[in-house]
Design brief:
With 264 residues, this protein is α+β, with helices and mostly antiparallel strands. Helices cover 66% and strands 9% of the residues. The chain is built from eleven helices and four strands, in the order αααααααααβαββαβ. The relative contact order is 0.07.
C-alpha cells in the first residue's frame, strides 16, 4: 500500500494500480480493503478509465459501506460523472457523501464540488448558498480562503471604480469652490499577499519529501510544509496570483494532477 501511494504521488498511476491490486490479494481489514479499492478507483480515474473506476468505487458502496471510505467513494463517483459532464448525476453522488462525520472532516471540499456542479447546471442561487455555507461553517478551510480571495478580487475592482468616481467628484467640487486641486492623502500600503501552488498532500513526510525532491530535479522551487494532519508539497513563492496560476497550469499539464493556487 505504501508503494502504491508513492507511485500515485509520482503520477505513475498504472504502477500505483498494480500495487493496490496486489495489496487486495493480502489479508486486510475492511477499512484498509476499502482504502485500496478507493485508490484503485482514483488511479483508474486519472488514467481516464472511468468505467473501471466506477466499478472500484461501487465495490466500496456494495461491500464496505460500514467503513470510513464510503463517503469518499461517493465523491469519487461524483467526480467521474462531473468529468463526463453528467452534472445531475454528479450532484446526486456528491450529496450521498454528506454524512455527519464526513462533513465535519471534509465538508468544505464536497460543498465546493457541489457549488461548481450547481453552476454547471445553471443553478446560480444554489451554488451561492453552498459557498455561503463554506464561509460560515468552515471559515478556516482552504476552500473558504479561495472563495474569499475570489470575492476580494471582485470587491477590489468595485472599490477602485467607486473610489475613482468619488475622487473625480471631490476634485471637481474642490476646483469649483477654491480653484485649486486638494493635496492627495497618503496611506500606508498593506503587506502584499504571496501565492504558491499546492501540488500534493499526504500524511507521510517521507513521501512528501521524495515528491518535492523530484519536482526540484525538474526545475521547480518545491518544498514541504507541515499541516495539522499531514504534509503539503508546494511550489514557489509568487508575488502575484496570475504568476502562480501560470505555473499551476503548467504543473497540471506536466504532472497530470489537480494542483491549485493557495495564498501564503
Amino acid at each position: 500500500m505504501d508503494k502504491g501511494e508513492a507511485f500515485y504521488l509520482q503520477k505513475q498511476y498504472a504502477k500505483a494500480l498494480e500495487c493496490y491490486r496486489k495489496a487486495l490479494e493480502s489479508k486486510l481489514n475492511d477499512n484498509n480493503r476499502a482504502l485500496c479499492w478507493y485508490m484503485v478507483g482514483k488511479s483508474y480515474t486519472q488514467l481516464g478509465r472511468y468505467d473501471d473506476a466506477k466499478i472500484s468505487f461501487m465495490n466500496i458502496v456494495n461491500l464496505y459501506s460500514n467503513t470510513d471510505w464510503l463517503p469518499e467513494a461517493y465523491v469519487g463517483l461524483g467526480d467521474i460523472e462531473y468529468k463526463r459532464r453528467k452534472y445531475s448525476e454528479a450532484l446526486k453522488q456528491y450529496r450521498s457523501s454528506q454524512t455527519e462525520t464526513f462533513m465535519k472532516r471534509s465538508g468544505s471540499r464536497v460543498l465546493l464540488k457541489i457549488a461548481k456542479t450547481q453552476k454547471n447546471l445553471g443553478n446560480a442561487k444554489e451554488a451561492q448558498e453552498c459557498e455561503r455555507k463554506i464561509l460560515k461553517d468552515y471559515p478556516r478551510s482552504l476552500e473558504a480562503r479561495l472563495l474569499l480571495k475570489g470575492s476580494a478580487s471582485s470587491s477590489t475592482k468595485v472599490v477602485k471604480a467607486e473610489s475613482a468616481g468619488s475622487s473625480s467628484r471631490t476634485t471637481t467640487a474642490a476646483k469649483t469652490s477654491t480653484g485649486t486641486k486638494p493635496a492627495a492623502k497618503t496611506t500606508a500600503s498593506a503587506p502584499k499577499t504571496k501565492f504558491a501552488v499546492q501540488v500534493s498532500y499526504t500524511p507521510k513526510q517521507d513521501l512528501a519529501n521524495n515528491y518535492a525532491a523530484q519536482l526540484k530535479k525538474k526545475g521547480y522551487k518545491a518544498y514541504v510544509r507541515k499541516g495539522s494532519k499531514g504534509y503539503s508539497v508546494l511550489v514557489g513563492d509568487y508575488a502575484s496570483k496570475s504568476e502562480a496560476q501560470t505555473v499551476c497550469a503548467k504543473l497540471r499539464k506536466s504532472e497530470k494532477n489537480d494542483s491549485y493556487v493557495i495564498s501564503l
